[in-house]
Amino acid sequence: MDVEAIVKKMTLEEKASAVEGKLFWFTQEYPELGIPSVQVSDGPHGLRKMYGQGLTITSVCFPAACATACSFDTELMENMGHTLGRECQAEDVAVILGPAVNIKRSPLCGRNFEYVSEDPYVAGKMSAALIRGVQAENVGTSIKHFAANNQEFERMYGSSEVDERTLREIYFPAFEIAVKEAQPWTVMCSYNRINGTYSSENPWLLNDVLRKDWGFDGLVMSDWGAVSDRIAGIAAGLDLDMPGSQGVNNESIVKAVQEGRLSEEALDTAVLNILKMVDKYVSHRSAAEIPAFDLAADSAQAADVARECIVLLKNEDKVLPLAKEEKVALIGGFAEKPRYQGGGSSHIESFKVVSALSVAQRYGAFSFNRGFSEKEDIYEKDLQQEALAAAAEADKIVVFAGLPDLFESEGYDREHMQLPACQNRLIADLVKTGKPVIVVLHNGSPVEMPWADDVAGIVEAYLGGDGVGEAVMDVLYGRVNPSGRLAESFPMKLSDNPSYLNFPGTGHKVNYAEGVFVGYRYYDTKQMPVRFPFGYGLSYTDFRYANLRVSRDSFTAAEGVTVSVDVTNIGDRAGKEVVQLYVSDKTGSTIRPVHELKGFCKLALEPGETKTATFTLDKRAFAWYDVEQGDWYAANGTYVIEVGRSSRQIEYTAEVHIIGSKEKPPVITPDVQVGELLKSPFTREFTQERLKKYTDVFKGLGNETDEMVEAVVRFMPLRALRSFLGVSNEEVDAICEELKAHIAEQMK
Ligand code: BGC
User: Fold this and answer.
1) Ligand 1 mean position to 326 CA, how many Å?
2) Any catalytic annotation for residue 453?
3) Mean local confidence (pLDDT), 420-433
4) Ligand 1 atom at shortest distance from the alpha carbon of 48
5) Long-range contacts (CB closer than 8 Å, 24 or more residues apart) made by 739-748
6) What does pTM read for this prediction?
7) How far apart are the C-alpha atoms of 95 and 277, rounded to whole Å?
8) Is residue 412 in contact with ligand 1, taking CB distance under 6 Å?
């Protein structure tokens, strides 16, 4: 299609009608112009293609993002993307609606199961990989929900009140990384408002940040029903209104253009972006070459993905792996009916769900008792008594615990972070038997674990998709060596979470008062105990780190640095280690978290094998977002590179230095504080000399040394010289002018 020529041919009315969806999942068609309609479908962890009256095709449910994030394996994500893309081709779906990359600000967000991480770097890298895979099959993605959609409470109206630095450092980078590294065909804007403006009509968000700053050249669509003012939306860069207004907006768009309230160019751009997407899809499609959707093969792949995601959180006295000969009591409704996906728009009509119970006889001797219902929190005495009786006969007890569907879903948030009380009670009673208890968790977001110190093993399965039961049994019995690592912190209790005092907000606003201190950035900076830290997870083998090296000790931000470390599998079985790199800023140039993840890499190691993890760090690995400059800033000075197994288990550190960054001169007005002038290399010497005759006056008032004088005048604005020392207005102004000239001279 010559899309530009087509747009020129379209009437104003046609263009007004083209910028909204049709029949919930389709774009508009104009056969006489050669424009077909294409379908979009949810996503993100399987294909939820709808047809007819609310019917959904049968497909494969891959593990949800809460689980896949724990694989820390970008190749795995890319492969999963390829399969999703092929499924879309088979079903004639042009765009799959995902990945969903909103940051897990609070463990209570009902949709956390669909989101990747509390860390923007992990969310960005894992999502970029998925996008690359899908789009390699000539199917588009829609990275969502842009932006600051971190709770379900009032999700369609509430305003996320977030300062710009926090947006740029925490809530944007997952989108930014994906846009820059994988060019998603489309971006889905979020429902919520940001600082009072709906994302669907926010020109700063959609045009300035997304398009100008990051170079996005695809299509922006609304979340379903996110459009409030369609005219403002078109002007702001929202191309496609989904599912649309059923024609209601068409006339007002036409009128707005005719009356000069909306530029026709803006409307043309929206239409053009839609047509480009349609063309990208249809022009690469040849139905003859498209293989059918192989449910069985894709389902097997979903189980393989699940095997890479499970996180072993506790393994006291090597209680795991279980041995074939051991008599194991399997307890809990989730063993029979695993919770393998979350509720809402991502819900898949699964082809086949494998429960742990259905495959248990392949692994060893076992008994099974429900113990509790997987659906609700009701203490059922008979069920619990039977479970306790069976446990008394067993060598080891495995409890399949988790959150019932009702506890977390798209559309509403959780009210607390606890498991159903009936489950906690049964686990406590099982511990009293004195037998080793292993808890397997099926949940989309962290739970409090009052029994964590008492049980012998904890296995986090999250919402593991169709093959979760088999994957869990493989891990329990050691057919698979667990290699997942937590992509989020597990706080001890809900009130430890940094958003606790402000979640979910009031007066239709939620204040992101914790700023950049989200997840481990907060817990680690505050040195708080956590149940399980970010990046944590055990293996059945062990690894040794050695030989941390940096390519240079001092470098400019533009040069960056390469870091490598050798990792050896020192156990007796093959395993995988997730090597993590954090950067800690010691320059004191602003308030920052104690460290931030800037690299990760997963190594597969045979027993005795050594491999090298290599990381390339550029300016962004060291920089913070300076709102005053409107840019990323890596101050000159010392940074510590930390390499380790989790945010709390750093194996080696190396000190490096950034040099040559352009320092910011202080802004000179009579309000500038003497301390700012003394701190800046631009003004330090000049200030010391020029103000000496005044500052010396402070000597002798108990401030004997130069250091003491400097400390006293540090927070004194220049203008205060008037009040304390009778310096004239003219002299203060003259000092300001001299300082400005002195700075200008050095900036030349
Ligand atoms: C969700 C989106 C989803 C869309 C279409 C919305 O309610 O927020 O994530 O893609 O519905 O189902």
Assistant:
1) 46
2) no
3) 98
4) 12
5) 739/668, 739/672, 739/677, 739/683, 739/686, 739/687, 740/668, 742/682, 742/683, 742/686, 743/665, 743/668, 743/682, 743/683, 746/665, 746/682, 747/665
6) 0.96
7) 9
8) no
